[in-house]
Recover the amino acids of this structure.
């Protein structure tokens, strides 16, 4: 038996990741304006839609014009297929033990699969035989990422194997860029050169390849010449462009909590494990019942602000001391009117008055913690209930 966590009733916990599907729809639409008509948009909704809820993200992206959905796991692909969404699905990461069980069902559901090695081709071929249908295969070419994908000198061999296999239909050639967010990095052009020569070699073996795709968010935003047949943006859909963008994108997730207590402390009060912070004056501290087990990055301790909504208005206040597993402390200031129960916005769109201070973003958290917004968003843990705005 598998037991889902948490066992807590979410109605009794104040922490929420508020998801705005309209933001994902608008972001998808905005990205779509950058594309030529013949280029399709694959919404990357892996990792539970970058923490936003996979089905929520998928539906919102389709409404914004996405016609493809991309996920890592076959299990995610199956869940998408079962939801009956109007989009072609691609999944790209599996290993033999689970692939043997899940791939026949995935193929029966009409999902496209990526192949990145001879062993993966054998798994897909066997699954297609079992499902009694041809597998639509996207051949992944490793042009420099060094992860999934066949190396350039293996392309002809795997091409020939696919040509000889009646259960394989070569649908696409694709690759993943290592450095598209560094716009001046020559690595991108080097990868494209390798990719193009691999595609030519593959076409020699199997004939024309219907589809090519390689652009993630960064390349979608900065390299129209790399859009090809499909672009595969992820993070930009959720409102965090990895490069400066000319289009308007807005965050789709807001993480909120509520003050558990407020207390007055003297100057010199130490706060939290290791006493890394002491108050520089008498002040009011607020305790917020959300911590690293909810997804806050401990590395951001004492380096980030949050927004507190009090009766007298919104205020950005510093988080002080180490972030604990279940709680953080914020310095509300000596004159604060904050009370237990007041709303706290950790990041996202606080939806305040136009001239009120805005909440920090996942980008602020990422910078404070020395990571990237991708990790901040996908770290929001299973014990934080997602509330989807309608
Ligand atoms: C294969 C693949 N394509 C596209 C993406 C989307 O990348 P980004 O979120 O940077 O747009 C990812 C995410 O890492 C990926 O793994």
């Amino acid at each position: 038996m598998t037991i889902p966590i948490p066992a807590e009733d979410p109605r009794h916990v104040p922490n929420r990741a508020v998801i705005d599907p309209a933001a994902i729809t608008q972001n998808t639409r905005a990205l779509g304006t950058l594309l030529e008509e013949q280029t399709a948009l694959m919404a990357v909704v892996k990792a539970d839609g970058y923490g936003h809820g996979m089905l929520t993200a998928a539906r919102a992206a389709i409404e914004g014009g996405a016609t493809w959905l991309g996920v890592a796991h076959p299990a995610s692909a199956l869940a998408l297929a079962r939801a009956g969404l109007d989009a072609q699905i691609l999944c790209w990461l599996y290993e033999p033990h689970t692939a043997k069980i899940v791939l026949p069902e995935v193929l029966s559901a009409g999902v496209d699969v990526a192949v990145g090695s001879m062993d993966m081709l054998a798994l897909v071929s066997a699954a297609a035989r079992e499902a009694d249908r041809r597998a639509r295969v996207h051949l992944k070419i490793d042009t420099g990422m060094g992860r999934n994908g066949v190396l350039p000198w293996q392309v002809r061999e795997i091409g020939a194997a696919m040509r000889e296999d009646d259960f394989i239909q070569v649908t696409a050639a694709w690759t993943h860029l290592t450095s598209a967010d560094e716009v001046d990095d020559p690595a991108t052009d080097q990868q494209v050169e390798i990719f193009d020569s691999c595609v030519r070699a593959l076409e020699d073996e199997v004939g024309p390849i219907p589809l090519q795709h390689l652009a993630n968010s960064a390349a979608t935003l900065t390299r129209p010449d790399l859009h090809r047949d499909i672009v595969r943006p992820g993070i930009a859909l959720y409102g965090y462009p990895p490069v400066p963008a000319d289009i308007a994108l807005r965050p789709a997730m807001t993480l909120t909590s509520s003050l558990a207590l407020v207390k007055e402390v003297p100057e010199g009060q130490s706060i939290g494990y290791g006493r890394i912070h002491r108050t520089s004056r008498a002040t009011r501290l607020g305790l917020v019942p959300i911590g690293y087990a909810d997804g806050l990055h401990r590395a951001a301790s004492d380096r980030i602000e949050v927004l507190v909504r009090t009766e007298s208005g919104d205020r950005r206040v510093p988080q002080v001391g180490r972030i604990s597993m279940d709680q953080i402390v914020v310095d509300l200031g000596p004159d604060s009117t904050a009370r237990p129960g007041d709303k706290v916005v950790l990041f996202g769109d606080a939806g305040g008055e136009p001239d009120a201070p805005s909440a920090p973003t996942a980008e602020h958290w990422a910078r404070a913690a020395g990571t990237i917004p991708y990790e901040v968003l996908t770290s929001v843990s299973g014990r934080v209930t997602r509330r989807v705005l309608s």
